[in-house]
Design goal:
By secondary structure, the protein is mostly helical. 75% of the residues lie in helices and 0% in strands.
């Protein structure tokens, strides 16, 4: 009898240990899933802010001090693609994070053989909305405030990561670019306007709105375009100059 009791106890212990191992493995897998999702969300938000707030000259100066100026200058040509990549990574991170937390919250309340009809969709939707708000607060607001103060350093550190994620998100990015270009005639991968072009556009807009007079707008535009001007465009030809003797009197 004692032997039978011991065998039964041993079998029960093995079953309990196996169930515990399966449960622990499932929890570790869920934790790893959420960790990856949070990393993607934070990196996407951080790089997106850094791309918006960076100063190209300061990033290149930091790169020069670290001996990576040439690689950094080459990566700057891909900034439009990097901007879209950062947004896609942030979106994927948030989506994975919200669905993962929602799954953990509901998995204990649903039977193993639950169907779509057994899922409380109204409660599920409320939970998803709350989780989305929390992830937006943490990854959208707090990360933005922290990164905005060190945008140049963050961008320099994130450029290699963006180069990798550019290829990882290619299956999502390519259809999106094609659809937007087809429907709205906008190229998401087009190069961003240069600082010179942005200033000229701002001056033209200010002139239209009355913030600048035509004379002030012309003066600013002439200063910006100065390096493209030739000497003959600035100086008056000698044949058109009226000259007098240096020792001539006022009379």
């Amino acid at each position: 009898m004692l032997l039978g009791t011991g065998v039964c106890f041993g079998k029960g212990a093995l079953v309990a240990t196996g169930a515990l191992g399966v449960g622990l493995a499932g929890d570790l897998a869920a934790a790893a899933y959420l960790l990856v999702a949070e990393i993607l969300a934070v990196l996407g938000s951080a790089t997106e802010v850094a791309l918006e707030r960076h100063s190209r000259s300061r990033v290149l100066a930091l790169a020069e001090s670290r001996g990576i100026e040439e690689q950094t200058a080459q990566r700057f040509s891909l900034l439009p693609t990097f901007e879209l990549t950062a947004r896609l990574v942030r979106f994927l991170g948030h989506a994975l994070l919200v669905t993962g937390i929602a799954y953990l919250a509901f998995r204990g309340h649903l039977p193993a053989n639950a169907t779509a009809a057994d899922i409380p969709w109204s409660t599920f939707g409320i939970v998803l909305a709350i989780l989305f708000g929390l992830t937006f607060l943490v990854n959208g607001v707090l990360v933005r405030l922290l990164v905005a103060r060190r945008a140049n350093r963050v961008l320099l550190a994130a450029l290699p990561y963006l180069g990798v994620m550019r290829w990882v998100t290619y299956p999502l990015r390519l259809p999106l670019v094609l659809i937007v270009k087809l429907l709205f005639r906008v190229d998401l991968d087009a190069a961003a306007p240069s600082p010179r072009e942005e200033i000229l556009e701002t001056v033209e807009e200010g002139e239209r709105e009355g913030s600048f007079t035509p004379e002030e707008a012309d003066m600013i535009e002439s200063i910006i375009e100065m390096e493209r001007s030739l000497v003959k465009d600035v100086l008056t030809p000698r044949a058109d100059v009226v000259m007098i003797q240096a020792d001539a009197s006022l009379d």
